[in-house]
Each structure stands twice: as structure tokens, then as C-alpha cells.
Amino acid sequence: MIAIVDYGVGNLFSLQSSFAAIGAEAVVTSNAETLRKADKIILPGVGAFADAAEKLRPLAPQIKKLAGEGKPLLGICLGMQLLFEKSYEYGEHPGLALLKGEVRPISEVIPKDYKIPHIGWNALWFVRESPLFRYISEGDFVYFVHSFYAANCETSLIATAEYGAPLTAAVGFGNVYGCQFHPEKSGEVGLSILKAFAEI
């Protein structure tokens, strides 16, 4: 069973539907005991980092403990950003520190004439092999919506996407994974990534 963390932010039910489409059991929960019993955990998220981190605070110790014990964890969009040490989104805010790196504005690295937020379909370029990519190919397109990106995260970087500059698209270190894009909105490619995670 896969637990989708419900902490008041995120596209929870489309994620649950995506897992149903690939035949994987997923429950939406805010219960720490359900997270403990789950085989894997999904940390979704949309919105602002500081607000999400505050809402996640009651469950953060349990998520960090379970990840530390080796339970597979996948952060999606803002959920991926929360895995890092800190974010510079409207101030400086601590993250879960499960991965090395920080979250910074894409405006620091993309050309001035590029629109923010970055919204649209972009190809994935693999940095290193990952079980998340078992069923997809380099160059496959996925759907992004974001204004911030993970920086200084070379130890976990597994894929980039080009938007005027190479931006972190996916990360993985040990049992902790993250996708800046939305697999639940990325058609067959996204479903294939969720299927691969479900099989880890």
C-alpha cells in the first residue's frame, strides 16, 4: 500500500487515481500510523514552501524517521522541494533535510525574457541511472509548473530539463526520490514513472 500524505496542500486525488490506473493501491492519509504501515510514501505539494513546511510540521518527524529506516519516499513538485535542506522562497525556510541542496528562484539562472512560472512540457535528460526511469526513455516529455528549483544537489541529481538553462527535474538518493514535474499530469510517461516507483 502506498500512502499519499495529506497535509492540506497537493493534488491528492488525481495522484490516487493515477495509482489506481496502474493497479497500485494508494490511500490519502494524514495519520502517522498509516504512514508507518505503508510500503511507500508519496509527499505531494503545491503552493508556497513556508506554508507547506508549516502544515507538514506535525508529520515531519514521522516522515524523516521512516525515510531514515529505508522506506521509499517520493516527493512531487513542492513535495520534492521540501526534501532539501532549505528554501529561499520569500525568505529562508528549513526543509526536511533528507537530501543535500537548497531551493532557489529559477529567475537566477534562466534568461530574463523567459516566463515565470515555468509551465509546460519539457524533455527529461538523464544524469544517472535510476529505478524511476525503468519504463521511460531519455527525451520523454513531462509536465512542469514551478518558479523555484533545487540547486547544489549534485549528490542526488538524476535528471534535468531545459528551460533556458538546465533545471533539476528529478532526484534520487538511496530510498528518497523527487520529481519537480507532475507525473500525475504527464500522461503515459508519468504513469510509467509512478509504476516504477510502486515497484521499488
What does this structure look like?
The chain has 200 residues and is of the alpha/beta class. The protein contains six helices and 14 strands. An eight-stranded mixed sheet has the order 2-1-3-4-14-13-12-9. The chain has a four-stranded mixed sheet with strand order 6-5-7-11, covered by helices on one side.
Short description:
The protein is α/β, with parallel strands linked by helices. It has helices spanning about 10-20, 30-35, 50-55, 60-70, 80, 185-200, and strands spanning about 1-5, 25-30, 40-45, 75, 85, 95, 100-105, 120-125, 125, 140-145, 150, 155-160, 165-175, 175-180. The radius of gyration is 15 Å and the shape is globular.
Which helices and strands occur, and which strands form pairs?
Blueprint: E1 2-5, H1 12-21, E2 26-29, H2 32-37, E3 40-43, H3 49-56, H4 60-68, E4 73-76, H5 78-81, E5 86-87, E6 93-94, E7 102-105, E8 118-123, E9 125-126, E10 141-146, E11 148-151, E12 157-162, E13 166-173, E14 176-179, H6 187-199
Parallel strand pairs: 1-2, 1-3, 3-4, 4-14, 5-7
Antiparallel strand pairs: 5-6, 7-11, 8-10, 9-12, 12-13, 13-14
